[in-house]
Amino acid sequence: MANQMAKRVTKISPSILSADFSRLGEEVRAVEKAEADYIHVDVMDGHFVPNLTIGPPVVKALRRITPLPLDVHLMIQRPDEFLTAFAEAGASILTVHVEAVVHLHRTLTEIRKMGVRAGVSLNPSTPLCLIEPALDFVDLVLIMSVNPGFGGQEWIPQVLPKIKALRRLIDGKKREIEIEVDGGIKVDNIELAARAGADVFVSGSGIFGTPDYAQTLKAMREAISKAYSPPRTQSSQRKK
Ligand code: DX5
Ligand code: ZN
């Protein structure tokens, strides 16, 4: 059908940055029960971003309490020095920032050699061309829709064209690469991100800041599925 998007498997990855850390296990189980697909873990070092969060011990503790893939987002300088520690702690996906890595091919290859899926992330102002050569050896590309460092920020919709351009590049490659969008994603803008071509949606405050996680995830899935519905024509609108 004209203009209808090909159906893709989409996933929701709640970011524990906005969870209640004093009850982290319960929070993770609650989003698991709400049918989250991944658990997004934001690692910050106070250098690459102006904030500090958590390290491998927390990933190890999470690995014991949930079967969900742990989607570990490394917002740190010199990530190569910590890859083994995060892999041994149980990370399922390790995403490094292209802005923090000198030898991207080496870093992504090292991650994959450890049996972990390799991701690369771009800040909102970083152009797509920097990761184009990596599309032959990466499993996930994370497009930041806020400047990384904090949860609860407003998204930057100007990154949508970058997601669209990446979608075209990946579709041309015929390789399985997920496009993840991260920052300020909520029920009311997730459809736009899906329409642009994202497959994995990270949301922190958009989930943990709401009273009923199951209801929020359901509303997010419904909004995502609208991106795949046939476009409404004038005649179909008149029939209502
Ligand atoms: C930002 C982090 C995001 C953030 C998402 O630096 O990488 O994962 O926690 O949180 P929200 O959805 O609240 O923007
Ligand atoms: Zn993140």
Report on the architecture of this protein.
This protein is an alpha/beta fold and 240 residues long. 34% of the residues lie in helices and 17% in strands. It has nine helices and eight strands. The chain has helices at 24-33, 56-65, 83-89, 104-113, 160-173, 190-196, 205-208, 213-226, 234-239, and strands spanning 11-14, 39-44, 70-75, 93-97, 117-122, 140-144, 178-182, 200-203. An eight-stranded parallel β-sheet has the order 1-8-7-6-5-4-3-2. α3 links the parallel β3 and β4 (93-97). The longest helix has 14 residues, at 160-173. The two termini are 21 Å apart. The model is unreliable at 236-240 (pLDDT under 50). It binds D-xylitol-5-phosphate and zinc ion (ZN). D-xylitol-5-phosphate is lined by residues 15, 17-18, 40, 42, 73, 146, 148-153, 182-185, 202-206.
Hetero groups bound? D-xylitol-5-phosphate, zinc ion
What is the N-to-C succession of helices and strands?
A: EHEHEHEHEEHEHEHHH
**Share of β-strand residues:** 15-25%
Strands side by side in the biggest sheet? 1-8-7-6-5-4-3-2
Low-confidence stretches: 236-240
Give the number of DSSP strands. 8
Defining traits:
240 residues; alpha/beta; eight-stranded parallel β-sheet; 9 helices; 34% helix; disordered C terminus; binds D-xylitol-5-phosphate; binds zinc ion
Question: Quick recap of the structure?
Answer:
The longest helix is centred in the C-terminal third of the chain and has 14 residues, at 160-173. This protein starts with 10 loop residues before the first strand and ends with a helix. The protein has helices spanning 24-33, 56-65, 83-89, 104-113, 160-173, 190-196, 205-208, 213-226, 234-239, and strands spanning 11-14, 39-44, 70-75, 93-97, 117-122, 140-144, 178-182, 200-203.
